[in-house]
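quick one before i forget lol
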Amino acid sequence: MKSLNCNGKDEELTPQNILNEQSEKWKIPLVSEAFARKLDENDALHYIRDEFHFPKLTSLPKVDKSRINSDSSCIYFCGHSLGLQSTRVRQAIDVWLNDWADLGAHGHIHGRNPFAACDYPCIPTLQKLLGAEDKEVGVMNQLTSNLHFMMISFYRPTAERFKILYEERSFPSDEYAFQSQIRFHGYTPEEAAITVKPRQNEDCIRTEDILELLKQHGQSIALILLSGVQYYTGQLFDIETITEAAQQQGCTVGWDLAHAVGNVPLKLHDWKVDFAAFCSYKYLNSGAGCIGGIFVHSNHFDKDYPRFDGWWGNRDATRFQMAKEIDRGVGADGFRISNPSIHQCATLAASLQIFDEVGIEQLRKKSKILTQYLQCLIENEINQAASKFKIDILTPKDPKQRGAQLSLRIIGADARQIFNELERLGVCLDYRGDIIRVAPVPLYNSFMDAYRFVSVLKSLKL
């Protein structure tokens, strides 16, 4: 199907143009159920949906059971919060359980997935997803812990350069980390924190405003740490341009990639990003609270940064010699602290197998079309004069400036009431602040999911 496998000259078409072209070719109205089904039939990646478990309507706690007539799957648009479970997870967990049962402590170095090397099967695919080179990726801890460990090494304030630049309305845990690091070094957030904000009456932050802020304050900024994809608005930042501009001002540049990895293609090595941290339970589908990771550019491999050490930062070959001084591993390995969890790495590896088979570029192509289709349905089916309410989409309209997310602000009705009603009808998404966040994930969401979601929105009796 041209719309989902666009290459060559088709790559120049916008997602909306592709949808329009397919509608005209098939002679099926774009907003019809038949069009959604036709898109799914021609989606070369549609089979991957069967690789994931969808919650059933009868399983979800908020569903009004008196209003459903089947035990079908819910409409799951919550992958930005927690990705669905891969059908491969149980087998991966069974391998660990069997090795533990059969081998005991010998499972550390023997068995199908030796415990002491359980993170290494995850690394090759993560390198591809992050655009990293050898030794630049490490699997360890969780997101905020990793941000702290990275800032221990990369946030080195001086009397002249001590500020941290981050976006307004960053994820709260990130802001807690930034502010506590600032206080740890003897400053106050009032003097050392700089937040970049959207312009008045706008929701997203313009790249040119970030660059202007760097020109004005770059000489006093020690660290810039932004989200690759902003959790609240869904905006995808121009990582390459911002990184280059900040480094020209002498700033160290880090990125929180919680909502970016597995969502959009990344080229961290080529973009010369200094470091990054990420979790794995959103678009990487590893499970709630599962293990995270770090990226450290090879430009920093020969630097003697201050850091907190633990025995897993020691080289594999000498770790069990129990020396008094650390024999530090190369690159990101040298930043690790404790041995990784075997069961967390097993669930992550199970999901990463699918990414490795499909490829992030193919997923990105589908994602642009799927997200655009959802936007198109909202604009044509909800934002009409006769509608009970309207929807303002905060997320950038340009597909290149967003991932698999639309942040919806409800106009003319109570957003919380609409969210609650959607939950009662079997739609799984989330509500943050005053917006409803919807994530059409290309791995497992279908075009019919988008159609069904908007149909439910249209049917609400408020």
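fyi The two ends are 39 Å apart (CA to CA).
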